[in-house]
Known about the structure:
Elements (H helix, E strand, L loop, with lengths): L4 H9 L3 H15 L6 E2 L10 E2 L6 H9 L4 H7 L5 H13 L1 H11 L4
Antiparallel strand pairs: 1-2
Helix pairs in contact: 3-5, 3-6
Amino acid sequence: xxxxxxxxxxxxxxxxxxxxxxxxxxxxxxxxxxxxxxxxxxxxxxxxxxxxxxxxxxxxxxxxxxxxxxxxxxxxxxxxxxxxxxxxxxxxxxxxxxxxxxxxxxxxxxx
Length: 111
């Protein structure tokens, strides 16, 4: 069965409100951990969270920030990054503290 957004939207809009609420709740749970600008791919950066369109892992940026680097320092050192990229990285790092601790510890000698 092939579906597209328009057909799903039309189907949902014709459902009873209670069913619409149930669908909204389901979708909200699915995207609750979504982080814009952050990508994951098994064969890129070992599957670690990274800045989309780059091979820059979030753990590395977080490690550098903990080491005293400011956003301006990071943007100067990595010209392909934007302030939005860093904001996305900091948000991800803040909501995934245990993951950051593990990855920094595992890769700390490489940073």
